[in-house]
Design goal:
This protein has nine helices and no strands. The chain has two domains: 9-51, no CATH class; 59-165, AhpD-like. It is 64% helix and 0% strand. By secondary structure, the chain is an all-alpha fold. Helix 4 (59-72) runs parallel beside helix 7, helix 7 (108-122) packs antiparallel against helix 8 and helix 7 crosses helix 9 (142-165). The radius of gyration is 16 Å and the shape is globular.
């Protein structure tokens, strides 16, 4: 049961109302999880700035991390949202399930990234040396590592927000692994 409501545009600050308008224009709706951030006068803007910041990772690579982290954190909201986004980034259903499990059988570089994201999340940053070595051997840089860690943090924030608030999922529900 969710005890936190999803606020409407009229229930949030003026600044958040502008962000709601921007999200509605860009996405066609305001995702419930984003709306929930707007209970705070500052959290939605801060989160979106962090989530949309420049990174050395491609859109596909970001989805690899988002899926692996959300699976470890068991966040159905983020798994559902990022399954939809991963499909927009040309991942198949089978590939998405693999990435959620923390590996890729079709691409060595994405496999190393998925394994790293999963390991960082599972170990809360006490990354296994062999996983890290594999990441670098796949062609990633130290800058890519830092960006991956930042993305793990970004996704963990949204995973925890949903796990705590349990707001309704407004994306097609991701299938279980």
């Amino acid at each position: 049961m969710n005890i936190i409501n999803v606020p409407t545009k009229e229930e949030v600050s003026t600044n958040n109302q502008v962000i709601f308008d921007n999200l509605d224009n860009a996405l066609g709706f305001v995702p419930n999880l984003y709306a929930t951030f707007a209970h705070s006068d500052t959290a939605l803007e801060n989160y979106l700035s962090f989530a949309n910041a420049n990174t050395s990772l491609s859109a596909k690579e970001k989805e690899v991390v988002n899926l692996a982290v959300s699976q470890v954190n068991d966040c159905i909201y983020c798994l559902s949202a990022h399954t939809a986004i991963a499909k927009m980034n040309a991942f198949t259903d089978e590939q998405i399930l693999e990435l959620r499990a923390g590996f890729s059988s079709i691409n060595n570089k994405l496999d190393a990234l998925a394994r790293l994201a999963k390991n960082i999340t599972e170990t809360r940053g006490k990354t296994n040396d062999s996983v890290l070595k594999n990441f670098f051997n796949a062609g990633y840089t130290t800058g890519n590592l830092i960006d991956t860690i930042a993305l793990v943090g970004d996704k963990t924030i949204s995973n925890y927000l949903h796990s705590t608030t349990k707001v309704p999922v407004d994306f097609p529900i991701a299938q279980p692994l």
